[in-house]
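Internal ticket - ligand job 309, adenosine-5-diphosphoribose:
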Amino acid sequence: MKTKVTVVGAGNVGATTAHWLAAMNVADVVLLDIPQMEKMPMGKALDLMQAGPVFGFDTQVVGTNDYADTKDSDVVVVTAGVPRKPGMTREDLVQTNQRIITDVIGRALAASPHAIFIVVTNPLDTMVYLALKVSGLPRERLFGQAGVLDSARFRTFIARELDVSVENVQASVLGGHGDEMVPLVRYSTVAGVPIGELLPPERINAIVERTRKGGGEIVELLKTSAYYAPGAAVAKMVEAILKDKKLILPASAYLQGEYGLNDICFGVPVKLGAKGIEQILEYKLNAEERTMFDKSVNLIRGTMSALKY
Ligand code: APR
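stdout (structure tokens):
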């Protein structure tokens, strides 16, 4: 039986996630948006499905405004939300997306009580935390995508700097998304060699800074937020779950003592398989990494404090 993935929010990130998933031929895809968006998800779904004969995928793609069509999904990806607009405070953004996430999680979970949930809506770690509280799901079954994207940006810049294939570059990041990211330079390698042995500190620092500001760099160019790489990052996580790959990736997970933290969602390396998060890996941190880590924790806790219950 083919598996089923629902993507809630058929905007840029949602539709691009559906695109990558269809091309990977791993599951049928349901693309859902609110009734106010009318038939937009149906249009995108039909267009995407018609790429199948060209690309050689048999993925069924359904667009809808009705959660009944999402019934019994294996994975639900949540990209619904509003982007931060000029003049909007962080608190406004948190509260608007809080309403959206609360609505989406309730409806999607009712339709797919056994699904694994991946939250993508920003501010990411805060929205993952909220979604866990609203759903009552165990942390294994609900987590967020941020680190796959941040580490992909890091890997891209390292590969370009050293003129090697991105496939040779492994990069580890912890912590919050974007500016709040904690790069683990010591654990980042090219064909097994730590990047500290390949690049001078000032080049590494420049790459880390560019990675941290990677989202902003794209907004500046595009006048909206990124979607190709974010969509690809989500699709990679979905694939790891559906194929039970036991793939170690960074994800925003609810911590219960790991890294000395409690009651927070934070980017950490996890093992992803059919049960969702099957393990949280704890890397040893040195003093410098711990300082960045603590700063990231404080930034996330600050954003979390804008949630209203
Ligand atoms: N239920 C379903 N969909 C919703 C809801 C809701 N309650 N509220 C809003 N949406 C939909 C919007 O109609 C829109 O089509 O979510 C979609 C969001 O799409 P975009 O505005 O294109 O935003 P996008 O760039 O895809 O980003 C979505 O992902 O990476 C994060 O920061 C980003 O939080 C943002 C989210």
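Auto-summary: DSSP finds ten helices and twelve strands in the chain. Residues 51 and 153 are 28 Å apart (CA to CA).
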